[in-house]
Amino acid sequence: MKNLDNKIALVTGSSRGLGKEMAIRLAQQGADILVTYNSNSTLADETVKEIEALGQKALAFQLNVGDAHSFDTFFLNIKTSLEQHWNTSKFDILVNNAGIIAHEMVAETSETTFDNLVNIQLKGPFFITQKALPLLNDGGRIINISTGLARFSLPGYGAYASMKAGIEAFTRYLAKELGSRQITANVVAPGAINTDMNKDALENNPELEKILSSVTALGRVGVAKDIGGVVAFLASEDARWINGQRIEASGGMFL
Fold first, then answer.
1. Is 215 within a domain?
2. pLDDT tier at 62, thresholds 50, 70, 90
3. For residue 224, what are the CA distances in angstroms to 60, 179, 221?
4. Residue positions annotated with a catalytic role
């Protein structure tokens, strides 16, 4: 028996990158997956096929986490699909992963950039979680994704890291308020990861990966597989007594 047999997980932004790896690792442990994508349905369909190849069910849904007005319709679609394909109206695991990154010094950060980050990185996960709560089974799991940049500081990420710091506080409140339902809420904070989101920065600055590796105890930049397993663990029964915690998966950056 796998750790997550008969569980259903909703992973936002799971058509590619870290989110895809999280979805795959959850599926490997026996969970069925509700995949979301913003614009690229082809990538989402590929993720669904990979999950199905593991013997699990999966469906893909369009979701713009920056558009809170769309969430009611999104969760109505989720509920309808759960009833049609799983004979239930509930799911078990919510992973708030979808997001963007922005690199602008505080002195140059535009209001547009700031507002986009608020909507996608803070307001979106807050209200997605709020709308998800009636559909989340008691004893379920909420896993939010933060960043190492909420602990250590690198110039140019002030606005982005501020939103993630807000997510970390939000997670602690979720843990406190949902304890009576035996729902745990935790944060995973990746360090520097070589994914689609950071690919351009790493390729355009060959020295950057060397610098990041030099300040990491394990001596390298992370990859998506370094994070997916952490999320799968927190979703499992083995992690039932971990609640309201921030787990940094950075290989030991800036220790």
1. no
2. very high
3. 20, 30, 10
4. 160
